[in-house]
Amino acid sequence: MFFVFDGMDGSGKTTQLNRFADWLESQGKSVVTAKDPGTTKLGEDLRSILLTDSGTPISMRAEMMLFTTARTQLVEEVIRPALTQGQVVVLDRYVLSTVVYQGHAGNLQPDEIRTINNLATGGLWPELTFVLDVPLDVAMKRLGDDLDRMESRGAEYFQKVREGFLCEAKACDRTVVIDAAQQPDNVAAAILAATGGINGVG
Ligand code: TYD
To answer: Are 120 and 69 spatial neighbours (Cβ–Cβ below 8 Å)?
Structure first.
């Protein structure tokens, strides 16, 4: 089983991902959590290039390819081996982030990004993606002032990110929007409720 947590920076997805992983473990599952981009050595190196503002110009298309390359390594080194062993994988971001941040908000074609990522991941798609949604002002407040290269893109970019996630969730199967502006316990309960239709969970 393969689950993805996605959403805007400041949506609280990492906290909820950890709670969900703990819950799966309490149900007797063997769980692997990972971060996209990250977790592998190559992924961490690319993450540092992508998130640190070092002054190196990176075009939107190059940025899209770098996020995608980090993902290829993560799929091959971590996700596929875990799934093959019957473990449950819970991932912090995946292809949908690229479709939204570099597509909807970055003006690349979402369909092209999906096609490239289908190739890059060997056609590996999650059973269920949770999109944690919060209003822009809530997300910005949670982020504070210490912003990385991506987080410094400003309110207009992030408004497009939010709308992109909502638009994709509406159009895509197996993608559910969770209201993440509620109390954390209520967010966690909404996430569990959304897994109701998945065989073998709970
Ligand atoms: P994230 O790991 O959620 O950041 P943090 O740990 O700081 O909360 O995401 C890293 C940033 O990269 C975030 O701003 C979203 C962005 N991103 C993209 O623009 N495209 C992508 O394909 C992915 C996976 C992330």
So the answer is: yes
Q: Is the pLDDT of residue 129 over 80?
A: yes
To the nearest whole percent, how much of the chain has pLDDT over 90? 90
pLDDT at 199: 65
Q: Domains in the chain, start-ordered, CATH in brackets? A: 4-194 (3.40.50.300)
pTM over 0.85? The answer is yes
What does the H/E/C string look like for 140-186?
A: HHHHCCCCCCCHHHCHHHHHHHHHHHHHHHHHCCCEEEEECCCCHHH
Pocket of ligand 1 (CB under 6 A): 9, 35-37, 51, 67, 92-93, 97-98, 101-102, 150-151
